[in-house]
Specification:
about 450 residues, alpha/beta, Rossmann fold, UDP-N-acetylmuramoyl-L-alanine:D-glutamate ligase, Protein-Tyrosine Phosphatase, Chain A, nine-stranded mixed sheet
Length: about 450
């Protein structure tokens, strides 16, 4: 992409926006960053923009933002936002940050999307590839913005790229060498007009530009996903914990097998995977397929699976106090993630639910909660909704903040119980993001 001396407006001044603006400047363009957020909220971003000598505006999107040759949109900005609609009406090309960054990346991109498991799979992929001797960067929705590392990736190196539906909404030519869709279940329906189909089709854009030289890894057990993949032009591999496949990974008698044209080329025990749970078996399978596409060493793959310890804010043991385990699952921002969390424990659970509701249907987890949960602590802007749904079925109490929750849990829970933060909601009503939410939770637990 030739952008020398081109005017580029970047919408959003947080991680992705800052990365895109810095990359635009590095490649000879003239970036302008615009964010409707407050000065207080964007204090750190403003410092970065000033140090980089990049022009910006905050608190609003003025007419200046439309004086550009290209507009790059951060994933936190809805595609139906007024500033985006106006740009499109004026025939200004709008693209996502991953589309922009991919134009300058010479390495092999392994694009990973799905409703749940993206962060774990992305982290495992980069960890395993590095352990197998292949230099691999993690980027996207996890860690650094893709724009921060794109130009530094060599042709024989890899990027393990976590991608949200929001980032895929505004792609154009984005073409990962490997596209991985872990699963698709209802989520973010507030952004997709309450349409599961629109949300699914957004996810499936990850392979729309692939050709026969590329690879697509799909979850065979996802009924929603299996409705749509047939348009793919790339080479397809499946993973499944329920049935055999002829190309990809399947589970048989607690043994994970990778097959290519029905020939077993790799196998390992489920017990070789350090991170537990069926969802992590699926995450491991998807990464094993990616590893075998590039013919990585079998023994090194197994060694990496045994040593990978998981990711922060996903079923993370924070501390044990008087025999009570405090678990940080702040990354559980939807109902399906809470299902995974509840199924991961056999001990009695005190569950912290709530935050910014995304159209949750709590009937999906009602039976599981009644079976496993002693009490619900409802927090955030969805607390009233949660209380209204559950209080006749199980002990439910609205709490102001984590301090109140943890004090109550310490007085009510007993040795052997679990206090689980698995909110089923976004974090933006009380926190900057799910990481911030998890960090505050951990700080308070560790202060007791």
């Amino acid at each position: 992409m030739d952008i020398i001396n081109k005017k580029i407006s970047v919408i959003g001044a947080v991680k992705s926006g800052l990365g895109a603006a810095k990359l635009a400047k590095k490649m000879g363009a003239v970036p302008f960053v615009s964010d409707a957020g407050s000065e207080e909220k964007l204090k750190q971003s403003i410092e970065v923009l000033k140090s980089e000598k990049i022009d910006y505006e905050i608190n609003m999107h003025t007419e200046k933002v439309f004086d550009c040759d290209l507009m790059i949109v951060s994933p936190g900005v809805p595609s139906d936002a007024d500033v985006i609609k106006t740009a499109k009406n004026r025939d200004i090309k709008t693209i996502s940050e991953i589309e922009f960054a991919s134009s300058f990346c010479k390495g092999n991109v392994i694009g990973i999307t799905g409703t749940n498991g993206k962060t774990t799979a992305t982290s495992l992929c980069s960890y395993l590839f590095n352990e197998c001797g292949k230099k691999t960067y993690s980027a996207g929705n996890i860690g650094l913005a893709f724009s921060e590392i794109a130009t530094g990736v060599k042709e024989d190196e890899f990027v393990s790229l976590e991608i949200s539906s929001f980032q895929l909404d505004l792609i154009d030519k984005f073409k990962p060498k490997v596209a991985m869709i872990l699963n698709i279940t209802p989520d973010h329906l507030n952004r997709y007009e309450n349409s599961v189909e629109k949300y699914a089709l957004s996810k499936l854009r990850i392979f729309e530009n692939q050709d026969a030289a590329d690879y697509l890894i799909l979850n065979k057990d996802s009924s929603l996903l299996n409705q749509y993949f047939r348009k793919a032009k790339s080479s397809i591999s499946f993973f499944s914990t329920q049935k055999k496949v002829s190309n990809g990974c399947f589970l048989e008698n607690n043994v994970i097998k990778f097959v290519r044209n029905d020939v077993v080329e790799f196998s390992c025990l489920v017990s070789d995977i350090f991170i537990k749970g069926e969802h992590n078996i699926q995450n491991a399978m998807s990464v094993i397929i990616a590893a075998k596409i590039f013919n990585l060493d079998n023994e090194k793959i197994i060694s990496a699976l045994r040593s990978f310890k998981g990711v922060e804010h996903r079923l993370e043991l924070v501390r044990k106090i008087d025999g009570i385990k405090f678990i940080n699952d702040s990354k559980a921002t939807n109902i399906d993630s809470v299902v995974v969390a509840l199924k991961s424990f056999n001990e009695p659970i005190f569950l912290i639910l709530g935050g910014l509701d995304k159209g949750n249907d709590y009937s999906i987890i009602e039976d599981l909660i009644v079976e496993k949960v002693v009490k619900i602590y409802a927090i955030g802007s969805s607390a009233e909704k949660i209380f209204g749904y559950f209080h006749r079925k199980i002990k439910t109490e609205i709490k102001k903040d984590f301090e109140e929750v943890i004090d109550s849990a310490l007085s009510e829970a007993r040795n052997g119980d679990i206090v689980l933060l698995s909110p089923a909601c976004a974090s933006f009503d009380m926190f900057d993001n799910y990481e911030h939410r998890g960090q505050v939770f951990k700080q308070i637990v560790n202060s007791k």
